[in-house]
Amino acid sequence: MKKILTLFAVIGLIAFSSCEGPEGPPGRDGDANEIFEVTFDFTSANNYGRTFVLNPVIGVNDNILVYELVNTNNGIDTWALLPQVYYFNNGTAQYNFDFSFDQFSIFIDSNLTLSSLPASFTNNKTFRVVIIPGTVFGKSANKPDYSNYNEVIKRYNIDDSNVKKLN
After folding, report:
1. What number is the average pLDDT over the span 75-92?
2. How far apart are CA 73 and CA 71, in angstroms?
3. Which of 93, 66, 68 is closest to 78 using CA atoms?
4. What mean pLDDT comes out for the span 49-77?
5. Continuous segment of H or E residues that includes residue 149
């Protein structure tokens, strides 16, 4: 009986180790944390959002965090993790984002008429995008507070001294 079980185990190991699926899209190197910044206006012409191409594409398990620049005081930037909800007299609006392996979008979602939002909410908005490889995202016992931009870049050893600006 032990010989039969051992034989089945060996056959199963050989059969499963030789299986392959289709190759996925190429991704970034496993340790290639990346950070960049976008500034744009939310308008009716862009449907109150923008989509940006990721080149190169990210890996299937990689993650993107997007932060809104909410304040600059004495040259020190304050960043808030999206989604960010804002309350107005007649309802709410929020900055939000989504992503896939080859692009990401930042947009406004609201129960208000988007054209009624104040210019300070829609014009010249800056966001910082952080790409974290799936090989490290959320796998550590000492995970950072993802809402804290400075803690995230410190934890994942991301150099934000020379942030790429996307158009």
Report:
1. 95
2. 6
3. 68
4. 93
5. helix 149-155
